[in-house]
Design brief:
By secondary structure, the chain is α+β, with helices and mostly antiparallel strands. The chain contains 30 helices and 23 strands. Helix 1 crosses helix 14 and helix 26 packs across helix 30 (about 910-925). GO terms for molecular function: metal ion binding; metalloendopeptidase activity.
Amino acid sequence: MAKKLLIVCALLALISTSLFAQYDMKAPLPMDPNVRIGKLANGLTYYIRHNAEPKERASFYIIQNVGAILENDDQDGLAHFLEHMAFNGTKHFPGRKGITNMLEKHGVEFGRNVNAYTAQDETVYNISEVPTTNPDLLDTCLLVLHDWSHYLLLVDDEIDGERGVISEEWRTRRTPSFRIRAQIMPVLLKDSKYAKRDVIGNLDIIKNFKYQTLRDYYHKWYRPDLQAIAVVGDFDVDQMEKKVKELFSKIPTPVNPAVREEFTVNPHDDIYFVCATDKEVTQSSVSVYIKYPSTPKEEKNHEYLKNGILQSFYNTMLGQRVSELLQKGNPPFINAQAGFGGGIVRGWSTYMISATAKPNEEAAALEAIYRENERIKKFGFTEGELERAKTNMLVGLESAYKQKDKTTSEDYIGEMQSNFLDGEPIVDFDYYYNFAKAIIPTITVDEVSALAKKHLNRKNMVIVAQGPSEGVKHITKEEAIAVLDKVESSNLEPYKDQVTEASLINEDLKGSKIIATKKLPQFDAEEWTLENGAKVVFRKADYEKDQVQVSSYSKGGTSLYGIDKLASAQVTDQFIGAYGLGDYDAITLRKLLTGKQAQAGVNIGGLSESVGGASTPNDFETLMQLIYLRFEKPRFDKEVHNTMMQRNYAAIENSANNPQKIMQDSVSMIMSNYSPRTLLFGKEFLDKVSIEQIEEIYRDRIKDISDFTFFIVGNIDAETVKPLVEKYLGSVKSYNRKENWVDNKVRGPKGRTEKVIELDLTTPKATVITSFSKEMKTSIHDNLCLNILRGVLDQRYMTNIREKEGGTYGVAVQPSSSKEPYESYSMSMSFDCDPDKAEHLKSLIYAEIDKLMKEGPTQEEIDKVTTILKKNNEQSKPHNAYWMNAIQTYYLRGIDVTDPKNFDNIIDKITTKDVKKFTQKLFKGADVVDMIFQPKSK
């Protein structure tokens, strides 16, 4: 196989040389002709494009070349504050929620479809997936962008009302990783303004700034010459351009505008070092960042496009070498990565080397991962590695080309945003496709290997150690540099690329025939029964052109095992993938699958197990082979198992006192009423895991194909699928077992359970979790009522707890229903807040439920939620995944979700009384778990 691959690639290189010659590498890249770009007299840039994915939808963005980096010291945090204020009153949409109330009436949901973000260099607002069937709505969305551009009201009371919300967002963001980052950035970006602006800002300023200070920032920086409008969707481009020009030209041209300064990071010859610690961090790591200037806008040409491909090859090949290290013997790190990353800040990129270390072994971890980078610098990659990477990229490129009509509007807008902010070229995919096909075969291993020599040096180097502040010894700057010196002066051996020429399956398979066929006209599908008892349900679906999905279902799962084997049962599917398959370890298997887009895996859940995967239509036979091997030739590799266990033990060593872990474990135990079957991940859990038990459980669960029903959905013909199903699924053994899951009687606590648990927290924060559950019959009608109730509660908690009280960044409302192992409904609410406000805010959770039980929701609330539900349901249909889910739901639950009587006919008739009645049925007499996690009393 390896020799054939090299010969084929050599021929491709000869053919591609002539194709490649047509490109002037220094020439600018042509702009995608499908994108309409213009600039108005007032300086505003616009991008418009037609796109029908999703169909009859459009997305509207305003991109501001403005962010936290432009704040004065007395404005620290106000760029982000201003982003919030854009939703609290504009010229044409006054009042808090004026914009969101209007949009949600059309199914455009706040959070999911309407949102914004602020970064150091930009602020971006979006209104996504807007129905295009209503022309007035499109005009309204343009008007919203128009108001965001220049007409925010910034009313005093609204500003004051948002102070509490952002203070709570500040609190929520104060995670261990945030605190670690706050220690790293002043060193990584030393002497730069980027080191001083973390976007969320200074809490004292957020609480106390003068109204005019915010308005000054707004009027100085929100202006058309620093803004772009991007509109992409299923509409007429000419009409949309006309509307954009007419509306946005009315925004006045700025007079004597402030200069939009571009900030940078200073280069340095010395090695910078920082050790960042936090008592809530559980793992140690050591990283090396090598900063280098990003490609200037004027040099983003064909050579730039080629360099992106070179870096992709480099990262892929280095990543595979690191992956091999992680599967051999006793790796010196828990995890590792290296290669070219994205931009660290505007104008600067990084080459990063990083390893998660075992406790007190940061030097060993750094040495191991740095050695692999140095090995590439000295010896480069091998021809075999590059040819595999080329083959896989070309195959992936072909697949992407077939799927290009499924490019979402958000993806196109992402390109527009990068073009406006960073000068990234917008290249038509057909052009890129032809360019890449021409250039990839001509790329040499020396070209890719040379990247290491160019970038792996000590100029602009920053070494970062991070981890727990207690109980661990961290590497020092001197020790880290000594490690680099040691590796660079050592006698390294070149990497040896072990290549095997083999087939996945070497024996003849007898297979078994399809003996019965059943039509499923409601799904345009068929059910086939094989001689060995396996059932296969097939539907051709070509919404995604280059995709085939396979799933399956068999009852049993981990419910069939006692506590003595439960730990092994719960991790079997996680470990089995690392062992390899059939005669090949995972490393060899990956090489054998070069050029194939097919993967198959196993899932063992609480009540069932499945074998499934995905492929392109061309590689469907490979997928079937992998599924056959998952049944008949699983692999259990003792060395790989021991390696994974060692990494797991190292990963948990400092987790026992982590507040987040304590909280998660506490919730698990309380919600299951301290069931002995609730196993907490830790040393005691890992001590119970063995490869012998994993093998026993796997061979018991992934066995007997007569107990499995398979579902195949994708762009492939039945005539192609049938013989492959007969050959591969038909060759799996049957035992004709009649299995079911076991109800182990794990239930939540009855009645009312209240817990207040104190944690040792760095940032004072309370987490409130309230859960209501009830065993009751489920129905399609009540399932819809549950989702409507969730939407109503979302709205009310947003209004009453986030906005009126300023009490939290947001309340998460999570509904669930279950038919197995028992029928039940539940609703849980959780949020973070000031510990002093926890009891009061929690009372509002109950108050809204009581109010809904007494009065029910309003018709306006129901209309909003049902409009959103119907829009999202309709939008999901033209996708293969929708039909896979529909067919599975029919087989597992007996419900045809495609039948209007099971959705449209019900949801259109649900009244306020229906939701009120369901609310009473769910909450009256429900079992309640009421938890507050709060800081320890001092």
